[in-house]
Amino acid sequence: MSRILLFNKPFNVLCQFSPEGARQTLKDYIDVPAVYPAGRLDADSEGLLVLTDDGKLQHRIADPRHKAPKTYLAQVEGVVSAAAIAALCAGVDLGDFRTRPAQVRAVPEPDWLWARTPPIRERRHIPTSWLELVLREGKNRQVRRMTARVGHPTLRLIRTSIGGWELAGLAPGHWREGRLPSGR
User: What's the domain count of the chain?
Assistant: First the structure.
C-alpha cells in the first residue's frame, strides 16, 4: 500500500530534503523515510504538498498529462476586473507558452488563513484582491506569471488542493497521513 503524506508547506521552505545552505527544507518538518514530493511549490509559495513513497503515484500526481486539478488562492495587487478574470480563464500567453484554460473566480480573503511570516508587503494606496484558480497543469511559477501578465502581480500564493486531497485543517509546517481519493 502506498504511503501518502499531506504537508502544509510554510513560506520560504524548499521542496527538497537535501540541505541547501541555511534554508529550511522538508527535512526540517518531515522525519519519514523514503517519501518524496509529488510536484513542487516555490519557496515563496505556501500550502498543500503531497509526498509519497510510490514512484508511479508520484509521477501521476505531478505529470500535467494526467490533468489533476490543483487549486490555488492568490492574493494579488489591485482590484481584479471581470476582463482580467476572463483572460485568466481563457488561457494566457506567457511568451514561452500559452496556459491551458483555467477556472478562476474572485473570492473574499479566507477567514481560516494563517498569518504569514514575514507578512506580505502592503502598499497603503494599492488595494489587494483574492482569486481562486484551478489549473490542470503546473509549469514553473505559472500562477504568478499569469496574474502578472493580466496586470495583477501575486503577493501571496497558497495551494489548497491537489486532485482529491485538501489542505483544510492542516496548520503550516504540519503533516498528516493521506489516502488515495475515492475513484482512483
Answer: 2
Q: CA 52, CA 26: separation in Å to the nearest integer? A: 13
Q: How confident is the model over 49-59, as a mean pLDDT?
A: 91
CA-to-CA distance for 58 and 51, rounded, in angstroms?
8
Q: Residue 100 sits in which domain range?
A: 69-162
Single-letter code of the amino acid located at 16 = Q
Q: Are 164 and 182 in contact (CB under 8 A)?
A: yes
Choosing from 28, 42, 44, 53, the catalytic residue is 42
Are 75 and 156 members of one domain?
yes
- Pick the closest to residue 49 from 130, 109, 138 (CA basis): 138
Is residue 28 among the annotated active site residues? Answer: no
Q: Are residues 21 and 84 in the same domain?
A: no
All cell numbers assigned to 117: 511570516
Is the same domain home to 73 and 150?
A: yes
pLDDT digits (tens, 9 = 90+) for 4-32: 999 999 999 999 999 989 999 999 999 99
